[in-house]
Amino acid sequence: MPTRRGTTSNRFIYNEQRQFPEATGEFSEILTQIILAAKVVSREVNRAGIAGILGAVGETNVQGEQVQKLDVFANRHFLDALSDNCHVSVIASEENEELIHTDHDNKHRPGKYAVAIDPLDGSSNIDVNVSIGTIFSIHRRITDGQDGGADDVLQEGTRQLAAGYVLYGSSTMLVFSVGRGVHGFTLDPSVGEFLLSHPNIQMPKQGSIYSINEGNFPYWAPEVREWVVSLKGAHNPAGKPNSLRYIGSLVADFHRTLFKGGIFAYPLDYKDPKNPRGKLRMLYEAAPIAMIAENAGGLAIDGQRRILDIKPKSLHERTPLFVGSEVDVNFARSFQDR
Ligand code: P6P
């Protein structure tokens, strides 16, 4: 029975859980905890301008980026929410260089799950009131024993149990997949609930929008430049010059691609020798976005390989990302094979 619009996200999650008789409810509880933290972060993001919590803390995070106060706030709330329920053993966060071991004394029942999270992606946009987002990925632990380890999050994206994002925009939206389609929920602040607004999201098979930071053109490989030049002419699947849309916030740029089709790309660029594998991170940006894209009928590659097939080697590993409509991603890939 299709779930009706207006259903709360928690009710939706429990309805999904009922499809699995062996489910214990622990996985559902992790999702509902993430959703609770997202409501709190949404309130602060929407108050940021008046709450005086804008501006950089002055520190820099593991990415060498200025840490904004909302980054700190979001990271604290998501980590607390994920640590409160005893079901998550380890967490990889963009804001923390080392893996986080949740400090539970549950000697008889260690947490079965591992989470990777970007608490507030696109944070450079915070001070100019541009949409920002949270991205999360949930794996089942594969290590034995009391405490989890890095291997629990360093799994191929195909092994994700769930992936999702929260977009703090003109409205706050939650979009996630547990491997059975992609569903969108819109926060109704008057009741404090995410309500099902976009069930079974399907990405258009082809679009005419490309989303990329053209300022990096001089630093791309020749085949990437050739691909982008082709998008500005008629020799591309759309048969006409594509439109360029770029917000500089992955969640916002991907969300538009999910609904309107086309392609988002952050290729390798040779601008920053410190980041030879590009800017986006595999665990908590590319892999969860790729799971959502594929479950909505789209594709996600690193230029050649399927993102979900890649086994990460380190927590903050970076990867090039080309994600979007099937036709547009395959067109981009065709330039890599030349
Ligand atoms: P650039 C935000 O910092 C982020 O990681 C993604 O959200 C976004 O897609 C990308 O960086 C933007 O990078 O170099 O175009 O500003």
Describe the structure.
The strands form 3 sheets. The protein has an 8-stranded mixed beta sheet, with helices on both faces. The protein has helices at 9-17, 26-51, 69-83, 222-231, 250-260, 282-295, 326-336, and strands at 56-60, 66-68, 88-93, 100-101, 113-121, 132-140, 162-168, 172-177, 183-188, 193-198, 209-211, 243-244, 263-266, 299-301, 321-324. The longest helix is centred in the N-terminal third of the chain and has 26 residues, at 26-51. It has 2 domains: 9-198, Fructose-1,6-Bisphosphatase, subunit A, domain 1 (Fructose-1,6-Bisphosphatase, Chain A, domain 1), CATH 3.30.540; 209-336, D-Maltodextrin-Binding Protein, domain 2 (3-Layer(aba) Sandwich). By secondary structure, it is α+β, with helices and mostly antiparallel strands. It is built from 7 helices and 15 strands. Helix 1 (9-17) runs antiparallel to helix 2 (26-51), helix 2 runs antiparallel to helix 3 and helix 4 packs across helix 7 (326-336). The termini are far apart. Helices cover 28% and strands 22% of the residues. Bound molecules: 6-O-phosphono-alpha-D-fructofuranose. 6-O-phosphono-alpha-D-fructofuranose binds at residues 121-122, 124, 213, 248-250, 253, 266, 279-280.
Mean pLDDT value:
91
Runs in which pLDDT lies below 50 for 5 or more consecutive residues are none
Q: Strand tally, please?
A: 15
In the CATH hierarchy, the architecture of the largest domain is: 2-Layer Sandwich
In percent, how much strand structure appears in the residues?
15-25%
Largest sheet: 8 strands, mixed
